[in-house]
């Protein structure tokens, strides 16, 4: 009788452990990495020109560049050439709906050949984006320049309405995956892609969509 009771307790404990483990696996697997686009540079590096920005926005772009460079998965190198692969600046004339806009084009092989990305200083000021939040937006725009799409994860730098988060591990993993596999059939030569990123209101310290 005692033996049967001990066996029953052991089986019950095992069931609980399996249930907990199953919940843990399903929870972690639900955290998907940031979506990748169908275009990328031929290698995880690009030249970038930020010289057309004001001094204060050059600081914002530099902070974003350093943030991506620190990840070790992509490297931006500064250039003053008008032919730099990425031209990053500001544009107060873009739609009042957006904090940033990035346009990239691909070459005959389907690799990214040129990127123009701009922040909207008028809207960033109107909605009181802090310098750290402006940097998050700049990191987001550079994510598009690298080849990342918008993420449904609010804790990703690539979340469409992001002003709160910098680069996260799921964003880093996405870049590793994008540049760690051949372009293959995903290549679309001579294409143009535009990403528009809306502003986010902020109420009592929290973002409001």
Report on the structure:
- The protein has 5 helices and 8 strands.
- It has 209 residues and is of the alpha/beta class.
- A 6-stranded mixed β-sheet has the order 2-1-3-5-4-6.
- The longest helix is centred in the N-terminal third of the chain and has 28 residues.
- It comes from Lentilactobacillus diolivorans.
Which characteristics define this entry?
about 210 residues, alpha/beta, Collagenase (Catalytic Domain), six-stranded mixed sheet, two-stranded antiparallel sheet, about 35% helix, about 20% strand, globular, disordered N terminus, disordered C terminus, zinc, Pept_M10_metallopeptidase, protease, metal-binding, MetalloPept_cat_dom_sf
Draw up the topology in text.
Blueprint: H1 2-29, E1 45-49, H2 55-71, E2 75-78, E3 86-90, E4 98-106, E5 112-119, H3 121-126, H4 131-146, H5 169-179, E6 192-198, E7 201-203, E8 206-208
Parallel strand pairs: 1-2, 1-3, 3-5
Antiparallel strand pairs: 4-5, 4-6, 7-8
Helix pairs in contact: 2-4
Pfam families: Peptidase_M10
Protein name: Peptidase M10
Organism: Lentilactobacillus diolivorans
């Amino acid at each position: 009788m005692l033996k049967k009771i001990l066996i029953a307790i052991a089986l019950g404990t095992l069931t609980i452990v399996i249930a907990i483990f199953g919940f843990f696996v399903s929870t972690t697997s639900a955290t998907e990495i940031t979506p990748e686009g169908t275009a990328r540079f031929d290698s995880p590096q690009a030249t970038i020109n930020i010289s057309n920005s004001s001094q204060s926005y050059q600081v914002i772009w530099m902070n974003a560049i350093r943030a991506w460079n620190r990840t070790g998965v992509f490297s931006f190198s500064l250039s003053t050439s008008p032919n730099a692969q990425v031209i990053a600046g500001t544009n107060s004339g873009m739609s009042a709906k957006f904090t940033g806009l990035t346009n990239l084009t691909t070459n005959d092989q389907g690799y990214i050949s040129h990127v123009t990305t701009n922040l909207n200083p008028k809207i960033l000021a109107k909605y009181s984006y802090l310098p750290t939040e402006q940097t998050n937006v700049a990191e987001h725009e550079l994510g598009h320049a690298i080849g990342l799409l918008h993420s449904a994860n609010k804790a990703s730098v690539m979340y469409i309405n992001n002003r709160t988060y910098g680069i996260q591990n799921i964003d880093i993993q996405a870049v590793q995956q994008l540049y760690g596999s051949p372009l293959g059939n995903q290549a679309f030569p001579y294409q143009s892609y535009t990403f528009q990123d809306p502003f986010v209101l902020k109420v009592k310290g929290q973002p409001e969509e």
